[in-house]
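Hello, quick one for you while I still have it in my head. A protein chain has come my way and I'm curious about its shape. Can you walk me through what the C-alpha cells say about the fold? No rush at all, and the record is pasted right below.
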Amino acid sequence: MGTRRRVSREYKQEAVALATQHGVAVAQAARNLGLSVKVLRRWVQEFRTDPQYTFPGEGQQKARNVTGGEVPVGFPRLSGHRV
C-alpha cells in the first residue's frame, strides 16, 4: 500500500490538465506523475463535475444545500436524533 501524501490544488489542476488536454491517456499521465490511476481518474471526475469548487482545500468549503441531506461545514452529523 502506498503512502498518503497531500498535494496542492495547483498540482491537482496541472495533473488533470495533463490527463485531459494534452492527448495523454489518464493511465500514462498517472504513471508519469507517480500517482495511482484511480486517484487521477477521481480528480478528473471531480473537476468535470464542478470546476469552480474542485479541490477547495482547507477552509474553502463550498456552501451546501442543507435540504439535500448534506450537513453544513462545521456541524456534526447526528444519526437517530430528532430536534
